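Fig. S4 source data, part A: sequence.
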Amino acid sequence: MKLFHRKKKDINLSGMESRIEATLRPVTPRRAFVDDLRSRLMAYSPQPAPVTIINREKEVQRGWLIAGGVVGSLLMLII
């Protein structure tokens, strides 16, 4: 019993494209929708990410954590 079946590699893309083209018809969007979308996109201005100040205590804790990781890795290599 096979759990996974391989997909066929000889897919007829041109036939698939012609079938999709025959089924789907292009639609032109309403002018009001386009204008609204354009105005909302132009009005969007990403806000800069807030700058957080890392206090000295957290920097020291992070330093000890990194130092402990380095020492632990060296001990593992030695053992």
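Fig. S4 source data, part B ends here. Helices lie at 13-23, 31-43, 56-78.
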